[in-house]
Amino acid sequence: MNANKEKYTQFIKAEAKRLGFMSCGISKAGFLEEEAPRLEQWLNQNHHGEMKYLEDHFDMRLNPTLLVDGAKSVISLLLNYYPPEEQIVGSYKISKYAYGKDYHNVIKKKLKKLLRSIRTEIGEVPGRAFVDFAPVMDKAWAAKSGLGWMGKSSNLLTQQVGSFYFIAELIVDLELEYDNPTTNHCGTCTACIDACPTQAIIAPYLVDGGKCISYYTIELKEHIPLEVKGKLDDWMFGCDVCQDVCPWNKFSKPHQEPAFQAYPELLSYTKKDWEEITEETFAKVFPNSPLKRAQWEGVKRNINFLK
Q1: Per CATH, domain 2-172 is 3.40.109
Q2: Which positions does UniProt annotate for tRNA binding (predicted)?
């Protein structure tokens, strides 16, 4: 069986690489004991703002065997999205992950292909694919499987590649060889804490999600609070400040995923272009874009708040 475990593990990692994933790590499925009290405290202190969905499925979030019966392994995968080009200087800013097509569909397809390959090679392995809408603590699992460490910004960080990547999982009923966590390489650096425009990183490794610019510009459906007027640093959708200042992101290399190629208008639009965009143009110019999460009304609300 051990020879099989090794063979299956090597096959899965090689297949993940072939499908374009940056890296693949595997951990034993089970209850996340260390994360449980942290998550409970974070929710009790209301650091999730209006994101009430984070209170749902508390047990599932901490235990993948409740998502897949008999689950034995969590296969964590990273997919690079660092863009080869950035927006013109002086425009309203958009988080780099939203430059191209919606990542959910892109990653889901790759995960399904990986699961199909596993079943073709190994047999009818029960399993499910997860991208970030599901109640899975993807950063915790990625860290557990040695793909990086949790930085002071609460982003997963990796030596040599930084943090501009998506995290996804396959949870499977298959015993595999498990990776070990890596060590923390933040040291005494506080660049992310110092740079956050809204002081959302309230302590090292602790983010108040209800103060994050990404929360204000994407998740929050009501009016943006007036006390943050002038503090959003021209971010109109999401925010990359804590990643942009992180020294490990000096090593980021451009992605090779055609679906993540930036919409040309997104890179070239000036503030004036964004201010004048109509709902019809928005729908036509940005089909299948993550910007649709905020919808045209949300984008307009954010721009009006920034003006």
Answers
A1: yes
A2: 221
